[in-house]
Write a structure and sequence with these properties.
With 180 residues, the protein is mostly beta strands. The protein has three helices and ten strands.
Length: 180
């Protein structure tokens, strides 16, 4: 902050700066500002053998459950669940192999999996080039937010009933556990 020029020797600051300093006692300085990225939660997803790791900063932009046939084949389960993070919030470490396929939507999807154990950990949907999808099972976190939407429900197996997550409520009706 630069003082405003004045003939007398008092210091005058801009209105916003003066308001910030008035809020604190004279001997105490305002807290230093830390960029938001420093305060965000960091999660790590990994493959079964641990050689491929994906570190994600912040909360996912969305969590979606997919019932398409390709996700059923990829996971070996009734559906796949992905957390979408902004590309700049994702850091990948370890070797991975690629597999590209057409999605049911008509766009292409580039899957990345561990060459040692074969776990698909993350993928890049061409429909959302600014996002990276990470399999939520790779986080192995019971407090991970549940899916808020489901896609390709016309392919849902009849016995696979899934309740979508409501903000602040975990599946089963309990609130998220508090950090210890």
């Amino acid at each position: 902050m630069r003082p405003c020029p004045n003939a007398n020797r008092k210091r005058y600051y801009t209105f916003a700066a003066a308001a910030r300093y008035r809020a604190y006692p004279k001997k105490r300085r305002p807290p230093t500002f830390k960029p938001r990225m420093d305060r965000m939660r960091t999660r790590e997803a990994r493959c079964s053998c641990g050689s491929l790791r994906v570190t994600c900063r912040g909360e996912p932009a969305s969590v979606a459950l997919c019932h398409c046939r390709e996700c059923q084949r990829r996971t070996g389960s009734a559906y796949g669940v992905a957390a979408f993070f902004p590309r700049e919030a994702v850091v990948v470490s370890g070797a991975y192999a690629d597999y590209e396929r057409p999605a049911d939507s008509g766009y292409r999807v580039l899957h990345h999996f561990c060459p040692a154990c074969g776990s698909t950990v993350f993928w890049e949907p061409s429909r959302k080039p600014e996002m990276v999808a990470v399999a939520i099972g790779a986080f192995a976190d019971p407090d991970f937010p549940g899916p808020s939407k489901a896609v390709f429900e016309q392919h849902r197996l009849p016995w696979a009933a899934v309740r979508l997550d409501e903000p602040g409520i975990r599946p089963g009706g309990s609130a998220p556990s508090q950090p210890r």
